Amino acid sequence: MQLAQIKFNTFESISDEDCQQRIITAKNKLGKNLVILGHHYQHESVYRHADYTGDSLKLSRVVESLDAKYIVFLGVHFMAEVANILSRPDQLTILPDLAAGCSMADMANLSKVERSYRELSKVLSFDEVVTPVTYINSAADLKAFCGEHGGIVCTSTNATKIIEWSFKQRAKVLFFPDQNLGRWSGHKMGIPLDEMPVWDPDLPLGGLTEAEIKKAKIFLWKGHCAVHQMFRLQNIERFRQEHPDGKVISHPECPFEVCAHSDYVGSTEYILKTVTESPKGTKWLVGTELNLVNRLANQMKAEDKLVQFMSHVICECSTMARIDPQHLAWCLENIVNNEPVNIIKVPEDEAKLAKLTLDRMLQVS
Ligand code: 13P
Ligand code: SF4
After folding, report:
1. Which atom of ligand 1 is nearest to the CA of 266?
2. How many other C-beta atoms lie within 10 A of the C-beta of residue 362?
3. 41: which of 77, 170, 253, 289 fits an S-S bond (Cβ 3.0–4.6 Å)?
């Protein structure tokens, strides 16, 4: 039976505790019709309800194996878009709060990418053309752009492999929107920093000279993650002074010097695995979002491991944090009422091209 849609304002005043109970009740009612996916940056109050947790790559792979009619994504908008693109047409992807975006993803848009690509093509000769590579943290229309122009998507796990693949197609890469991931991945491949200039899409020719464009191997879009940008080399130096036997692990969205002075660099899933599998009593400084680090620190206490956050200021992803128990309970109860809300649906033509690049990525990685 179809009932009227429940408005979110009726959930605003419900306590976290009551929402927890309502989430469990709705999950039980929906049974196999529902799957909840949770990114590692989600707050514990909703993360605990996820059937699958992971980084962007792992969650993309999971989607393809799901049978449930409803896929509720505890994460940000681009992740729900990917889930929609990779799922079957009869499945519905739901993002509990539509305002959960990614500020880094918003640093690139289709008109700027199209203009940049056109400008580069004018300067470069036929055999120097550019492969567009978009980080998965980007809108679906940018993934579609890559699909249309022989490009590809990457995640923080596979960026190096994907750039290697891209160089097999063409001589140069336009990497957007995260300059830090692009720079770190290129550096790991042995590309000198002066062959990876920053491309500022708001300036003519990206702010580069024709000579700089000809010399470049990777054009790094002027974009970054505001959360990871907060981590500093000084945080690492202080930790190493206090704990000379400690280890430092960072996400590749961190500034270059932070990655370069870390013992390990990798995706959120890699960070969790590396710290979890380390010997008892190990000490860690972790450069990634606060919710992940707090959860890990709590879990590792039992093994006498010290897990320290890399910054003294709070670096929480405020958009990830928009998914709270109230929004989750609200959208689950609307599904129970057969009135699903916040459905993420990428337009068909865009989804087709975006799927091409995502499939390409899943094959290459
Ligand atoms: P992961 O793919 O490593 O989980 O990263 C996603 C993200 O948004 C990091 O800021
Ligand atoms: Fe986007 Fe940064 Fe938040 Fe990741 S941590 S979702 S890159 S704003």
Report:
1. 3
2. 16
3. 289
Q: Which residues surround ligand 1 with Cβ inside 6 Å?
A: 40, 55-56, 137, 155-156, 225, 251, 253, 267-268
- Closest ligand to residue 155's CA: 1
| CA–CA dist 127, 129 (Å, integer) | 6
Dump pLDDT digits (tens) for 15-26.
999 999 999 999
Burial 157-190 (b: 16+ CB within 10 A, else e): bbbbebbebbeeebebbbbbbbbbbbbbbbbeee
CA-based nearest residue to 26, from 6, 52, 53: 6
pTM metric for this prediction = 0.96
> Is the torsion defined by CA of 63, 228, 255, 251 positive or negative?
negative
The full set of domains in the chain, from first to last, is 8-100+320-347 (3.40.50.10800), 105-225 (3.40.50), 228-309 (3.40.50.10800)
- Side-by-side strand order, sheet with 247-250: 264-265, 247-250, 283-287, 306-309
| Closest to 275 (Cα-Cα) out of 254, 256, 303 | 303
Backbone angles phi, psi at 255, to 5 degrees: -55, 155
Find all residues with CB under 8 Å of 281, minimum gap 6, and list them: 303, 304, 305
Place of tokens 């390409």: 360
Distance 102 CA to ligand 2 centre (A): 5
> Residue 127 — very low, low, confident or very high, per pLDDT cuts 50/70/90?
low
